[in-house]
Amino acid sequence: MAEKVVPTAAREAETHHRRPLEMEPGLRVEMPGFIFHPVLMTLERFGLLVRGILYALIGVVAVAATIGISESVDLQGSLTLVLANGLKVPIAIFAAAGLFGYSLWGLVRAFADPLERGGNWHGIISRVGFLWSAIAYAGLALFAIQFAIGAASGGGGGSLPLGINKLLGPQLTTWVLPVFGGVVLITGIGQFMDAWFAPFRSDFLPQEKNPRLWSLWVLAGRIGLLGRGVAFTVIGILMVLGGINGDVRYDYGLTRAFAVLLGLPAGAVLVTFVALGFIALGLHSATAPPVLRMKPGLPPPVRRRTSKET
After folding, report:
1. What pLDDT is recorded for position 18?
2. Which of 6, 11, 45, 102 is deepest in the core (most CB within 10 A)?
3. In which element (H, E) is residue 23 found?
């Protein structure tokens, strides 16, 4: 009996003394302890809430656009709407803090892999997407700060984030734009696949305790990814066609995608579906902080179907 206890204790000691940034099985990186400090984790949860509000606002404004009340906006535009008031400086500080928190959450998901996506090809693709999310939301946080101090205005597109469009001349644009468009198009197809397979099903911690709430949360995620998949696919196609045709104005965001969809037969119905998807994705994100698997070492995810599903 004693012989069995010693190896277990040795393994536990080894686990507790892993060096930061050490690679573990499944391509998981051992993160420094301060990354999971309660303050930083609270900031990440607040980031999920801010992201949810922005996505829901995109959907609400898009629905209003279908009946002519407003013009559709993208993530940058929805942030502009939030900040367009007399309290824009304190709101921008909170928004930027939340967006930086969500950016940090992207880094944690990509390297520490608390959602247990793993090291297979699908897991690696998902984690690269998390890393890109970290970069994108850091840029959005910088935009919030710039907007608050008067260095930016508007938000409907026309330029790439962080002034990248100024670094790329027209000579580079003719081939860079289709490449980016292809990446966005593949991302859109990936959104459809994620909506079907729902790899986030195991991210919900109280899955067995509250299966009904889990089912609603998963449904919101599926609908949200479907809507975002349509939007990304349209944006990717527009970028590829724009590069081929020489239309290099860099206004290939959600605003233009919604405008193209509205011009199609039954376009208002299609835009409403996509808008409801963004609202569902916003609710999915805003309700995630209390239930999401946000650090490694939590109880293993439940991957089997529950009795409610069967």
Report:
1. 63
2. 102
3. strand 23-24
Contact (Cβ atoms closer than 8 angstroms) between residue 282 and residue 52: yes
Query: What's the average model confidence in pLDDT over 230-256?
Result: 82
Q: Helix or strand or coil: residue 265?
A: coil
Q: Is 5 within a domain?
A: no
Closest CA to 21 of 36, 32, 12: 32
Range of the domain at 77: 38-286
pLDDT of residue 301 exceeding 50? yes
Spatial distance between the Cα atoms of 170 and 115, rounded to a whole number of angstroms:
41
Per the CB < 8 A criterion, the answer to whether 277 and 234 are in contact is no
- Count of beta carbons in the 10 Å neighbourhood of residue 129: 18
- Give 284 or 22, the one with higher predicted confidence: 284
Distance CA 100, CA 137 (A): 7
Question: Per the domain annotation, does 11 fall within a domain?
Answer: no
Could you report the per-residue pLDDT of 104-156, keeping only the tens digit for each? 999 999 999 999 898 888 889 999 999 999 999 998 898 888 877 764 444 44
